[in-house]
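We give this protein:

***
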Amino acid sequence: TDAALSCFREGRITSVSAMVFMQDSERAAELAREHKLDVGLHLNLSQRYQCQVSPAATKSHERIVRFLTVTKYAVLVYHPGLRGDFRNVYQAQTDEFLRLYGNPPSHVDGHQHRHLCVNMLVDGVIPRGQKVRRNFTFWPGEKSLLNRVYRGWIDKWLGRRYRLTDFFFSLGQCLKANRMSRVVEMAKGAKVELMAHPIKGHEFTFLMSDSCMEMLRTLDVVSYTAV
């Protein structure tokens, strides 16, 4: 919360996403309202709640968490017995977001990207027309052909139902692979989302650096609301 706010106040990030029913959710919302942050919903389907929630909402969430954390491949499996639970959990978290922030989320993404699990996609749990985070964009050779084909197919399906950016990258991976200049060039002609985790020291250092500010000055940088 604090690291993200510091980056926002210095003009290094434009939007954040927030989890609800967690330890710092109330304070994060207060700070976001005070500083007029653009905030999306960081849908949580894999980490147990840290605050008191109604028994029914907790029970639905627990069932989903158990299912999605058994194996990393659970996101590829459709569980018909959890259809109602996924809808209940999404509704509970969006209702809590509205209570905390006073406005609907600017976009929806997911903790560990599980908002793109098969149950969420097949049943269209997120309402049509929302801005939703797409799959990571990988360069040829980074992932297997099958992996990239599957992600591409999902993104095409998402694009017919939701509003997406053209590309989506992780700042941490771009720094590790020395690909920031390539992403910047792409962003000059396309809508690119760059995900950052300011709590990670090396990402925070880069975000607050002069080189990052120089990079941002070459781009049309906007919040998710303005995409």
User: Anything to note?
Assistant: Residues 58 and 91 are 13 Å apart (CA to CA). The radius of gyration is 18 Å. DSSP finds ten helices and five strands in the chain. The mean pLDDT is 96.
